[in-house]
Specification:
Low-confidence stretches: 1-38, 316-320
Membrane topology: Multi-pass membrane protein
Largest sheet: none
Shape: globular
Radius of gyration: 33 Å
Subcellular location: Cell membrane
Number of helices: 13
Protein name: Sugar ABC transporter permease
Main location: membrane
Keywords: Cell membrane, Membrane, Sugar transport, Transmembrane, Transmembrane helix, Transport
Length: 320
């Protein structure tokens, strides 16, 4: 008995057996899972980890969604380089041509429409950003009579569809002699953009500490001086979002631009596009070229403002 015990204790343990404290003497011959020569080698899947099939399905869905999103502008760009006879062909660019762009720039009022749109958009953006930022700052920092009705007014104005307001606004513009004038579109676009942007700027200003305002007043700054010199530099992300939203509102709007402006020399770019495809003409090749030219400034503005868009939108959505 003593010899057998001594031989068992002094001998080396077989490969794959567990030794040491906490080991099970009765299962010493069972190899660990994944060890040399034993088990299937599969690692248990962690909680929330996707399997190969789920990962493939996710990436395939994202790829399909990306193709759907990219296809319309890509096909618009391709069609703009086709002659009129190949407009509806599924071939990419069999007969490459720049005649569409040459015709749009030199034989139409495109440059006039561009100038009209630029005047309306720049004026609307500058005035809209200023009014929205000052209104949002006042709602965020001050308490005054009529503050709550003003906030409700800004909110309720967002509930009306644009199409419902065309007739009453047209009657107002006609009564005051503002039809076929840029100021008609500027005022109209401000009524669309300012309420939403003011609410967004209020949410952004709520995230800026009030102590900054107090320090500015201690240094002798007026309320407007505090706003302009201290708060505005900190509000650049919110201002970028506000400016981009106002720009897009004025640049891409069609309903009011075609209702308030008549005659080719008064049209903006949105209204000018309709001259290519209407009940009398069907120049899709020219319309696609004009659409590409219109998209270029919007793309440049978005590229400039996109670094501020995410931080500005999330900051404006934060409740203080």
């Amino acid at each position: 008995m003593s010899a057998e015990t001594t031989r068992f204790d002094s001998g080396s343990a077989p490969a794959g057996t567990r030794t040491g404290p906490g080991s099970d003497p009765g299962r010493g011959d069972i190899p660990q899972s994944g060890g040399a020569g034993g088990g299937s080698g599969k690692r248990p899947r962690r909680r929330g980890e996707r399997g190969p099939l789920a990962s493939f399905g996710l990436h395939a869905t994202l790829l399909f969604a990306a193709v759907i999103a990219v296809f319309p502008p890509l096909w618009l760009l391709v069609t703009s380089f086709k002659p009129k006879s190949d407009t509806f062909t599924i071939a990419l660019i069999s007969n490459f041509t720049l005649d569409n762009y040459d015709h749009v720039l030199n034989n139409t009022k495109f440059l006039t429409w561009f100038g009209n749109s630029l005047l309306v958009v720049v004026t609307t953006t500058v005035i809209g950003v200023f009014i929205s930022s000052t209104t949002g700052y006042a709602l965020s920092r001050f308490r005054f009579p009529g503050m709550r009705p003003l906030m409700w007014t800004l909110l309720i104005t967002q509930m009306f569809p644009m199409a419902v307001l065309i007739v009453p606004l047209y009657n107002l513009m006609s009564r005051y002699g503002l039809l076929n004038r840029p100021i008609a579109l500027i005022v109209t676009y401000l009524t669309i953009a300012v309420p939403f942007c003011a609410w967004m700027m209020k949410g952004f200003f709520d995230t800026i500490p009030v102590s900054i305002d107090e320090s500015g007043r201690v240094d002798g700054l007026s309320p407007f001086g505090t706003f302009w010199r201290l708060i505005m530099p900190l509000a650049r992300p919110g201002l970028a979002v506000t400016g981009f939203y106002t720009f897009v509102t004025a640049w891409a709007e069609v309903a009011y631009a075609t209702a308030f402006m008549t005659g080719e020399r008064h049209l903006t770019l949105a209204g000018g596009l309709q001259t290519f495809v209407n009940q009398h003409t069907q120049d899709w090749h020219l319309m696609t070229a004009a659409a590409v030219l219109i998209a270029v400034p919007a793309t440049l503005v978005f590229g400039y403002a996109q670094r501020h868009l995410q931080s500005g939108l999330t900051a404006g959505a934060t409740k203080a």
